[in-house]
Structure formats: C-alpha cells, structure tokens
TrEMBL record:
SUPFAM superfamilies: Purine and uridine phosphorylases
Catalytic activity, as annotated: a purine 2'-deoxy-D-ribonucleoside + phosphate = a purine nucleobase + 2-deoxy-alpha-D-ribose 1-phosphate
NCBIfam families: PNPH (TIGR01700), PNPH-PUNA-XAPA (TIGR01697), PRK08202.1 (NF006054)
Protein name: Purine nucleoside phosphorylase
Gene Ontology terms: biological process: nucleoside metabolic process
Record has Glycosyltransferase as a keyword: yes
Function: The purine nucleoside phosphorylases catalyze the phosphorolytic breakdown of the N-glycosidic bond in the beta-(deoxy)ribonucleoside molecules, with the formation of the corresponding free purine bases and pentose-1-phosphate. Cleaves guanosine, inosine, 2'-deoxyguanosine and 2'-deoxyinosine.
Span of the signal peptide: none
Matching CDD domains: PNP-EcPNPII_like
Keyword Oxidoreductase found: no
Subunit structure and binding partners: Homotrimer.
GO MF, one annotated term: purine-nucleoside phosphorylase activity
Enzyme Commission designation: 2.4.2.1
Protein source organism: Candidatus Ruthenibacterium merdavium
C-alpha cells in the first residue's frame, strides 16, 4: 500500500473534521443508521477522498460520518468494501490505515452474519471473540510498512478482552442476551453450501460472513483495540428450510440493528478507556 496515498487521503479527511476521532466504526449491511445518532456530524463521501475505492454492495451508503457518539469523537464508515465486489485487499483496508493516521485507537465493527451455532437464533447479537480467516487472502500480504506495524503480526488478543468485557456488561444492563463466538469469513458472493457449514462447525465457527476480517487484521497490525459484533440475520445454509437470500439480511439488519446501535453507544459512553 502506498503510504503517500494514505497520507493524502487522511489529510483530505482532516481538513473536513472538527476534532480528532479516537474511535472508528464500521457499519455492516443494513446497519448504517447509527450514523444518524452521531452529533455535530460531518459527512465525507468516499468518492471525494483521494485514492478511495467506492462500495457497490446493497445496503452500503459510502461515506465517512464524523462527530460525537456517546460523548466521544468518532469517525464512522457508513458502508464498507467487500472482497466479493472484486476490490483488492489493499483497497478494502485502506480506510483503516487512514483512520489510524487520523488518530483512531479503537475499531468497532459490526456485520451481518449467518448463525452456525445451533444455540443461536435469527436476530441474536454475537460478540466476536476470535475469527477464522477463510477468505483465501490476507491484507498484510506484500511489502510491510513498518510505520504501521511489524511484518509478523500477533493475533492472540485481537478482539480486545477489556472491550469484550465492557460489551458484555452493557448488554447485561440492557437485558440483551449477547452471544459470544467465532466468526468465519468467506469471500462470497455465493452463500456457503450446507456441507461447508457443517465443516465450519467442526472447526469451531459460530457464525459466517463475508466481511470484517480484513479490516480487523489491519487494525490489529497497526495497534488498534478491536470490538466486533455480528447480527445473526439468518441461520446458515442447510439450517433453515428456506433457501438464503440477500434481502432478508438487509431487512433484519434494519429491525435488530437499532438494538446493536444502542449497545455500541452504551459501550462508548461507559467505557473509560475509550
Ligand atoms: N453467509 C455469509 N454471509 C452472510 C450470511 C450467511 O449466511 N448472512 C449474512 N451474511
């Protein structure tokens, strides 16, 4: 990744910001509405930012929204890029490095996912405790830029234990039965087969989706804390009678997404280390 390009994009965004964000948010399919809760919001369309690639995925708006959420300065990616759109890993994680240069220390990511764990139900929220990268690629492949992080990046504590604890505490306070589990990322765009889902279950996966892992790896590499939560929009292939379609993912995101947004806002508000 060209470090000058990251700098140029960050400089452009900085010119439009009222204050330095310390928290970066990525919103998943149908989960973009938390941006409406951001106070003193400044919107910056990706299309105007130098070197930014633009998302074509349904349910993704395509802009940064910066301002205050839960009393803290945030910058939110309303819409993200996916591997299945044909974007390079470099383009997918470019905004994470831009956020790093803006001053972001914590990444909070949401996504829509299919439930693999038999104890999950549609509409559940799952706190990601770890992931399995089944994308067939890694955003850190290529020349390493030491100014962001080391060549070989430790992934043991990627999903920051203190933030997970804080999320559990806030969920409990709100009466949410927050599930915990391992997120497995597939490239898509075809949904998984029932045989793949059975295999993933034996590997220890609890949910499956098509995003998040590249951004999280990049955030971990540059030393950010990470919190990530999935909304279970459907049970994975072969676990429900109906076949899967992308529309239910977006519709369910709209309904249960509001609860996920409140949870995230409470975590930001009540976590003193953020
Ligand atoms: N598989 C992959 N990605 C998804 C799913 C799924 O079942 N549901 C939402 N995103």
């Amino acid at each position: 990744m060209n470090a000058n390009f990251v700098r140029q994009a960050a400089d452009y965004v900085l010119e439009h910001l009222k204050e330095t964000p310390t928290i970066g948010l990525i919103l998943g399919s149908g989960l973009g509405e938390i941006a409406a809760r951001i106070e003193q919001a400044v919107k910056i369309p990706y299309a105007q930012i130098p070197h930014f690639a633009v998302s074509t995925a349904p349910g993704h708006a395509g802009c940064f929204v910066a301002g205050r959420l839960g009393g803290k300065p945030v910058i939110c990616m309303q819409g993200r890029l996916h591997f299945y759109e044909g974007h390079s890993m470099e383009d997918i994680v470019f905004p994470i490095r831009v956020m790093k240069l803006l001053g972001v220390r914590t990444l909070i990511a949401t996504n829509a996912a299919g439930g693999i764990n038999h104890d999950f139900s549609v509409g559940d929220l799952m706190l990601i405790q770890d992931h399995i990268n089944f994308l067939g690629s890694n955003p850190l492949i290529g020349k390493n830029d030491e100014s962001f992080g080391p060549r070989f990046c430790d992934m043991t504590y990627t999903y920051t234990p203190a933030l997970r604890e804080s999320a559990q505490k806030q969920a409990h306070r709100m009466g949410i039965d927050l599930k915990t589990g391992v997120y497995l990322a597939c490239s898509g765009p075809s949904f998984e087969t029932p045989a793949e889902i059975r295999a993933f279950r034996t590997w220890g996966a609890d949910a499956v989706g098509m995003s998040t892992v590249p951004e999280v790896i990049t955030a971990a590499h540059c030393g950010m804390q990470v919190l990530a939560i999935s909304l279970i929009t459907n049970m994975a292939a072969g676990m429900q009678e109906e076949s899967l379609n992308g529309q239910e993912v977006i519709e369910l995101g709209k309904a249960r997404g509001r609860l996920l947004e409140q949870l995230i806002e409470n975590v930001i508000l009540h976590t003193s280390t953020l």
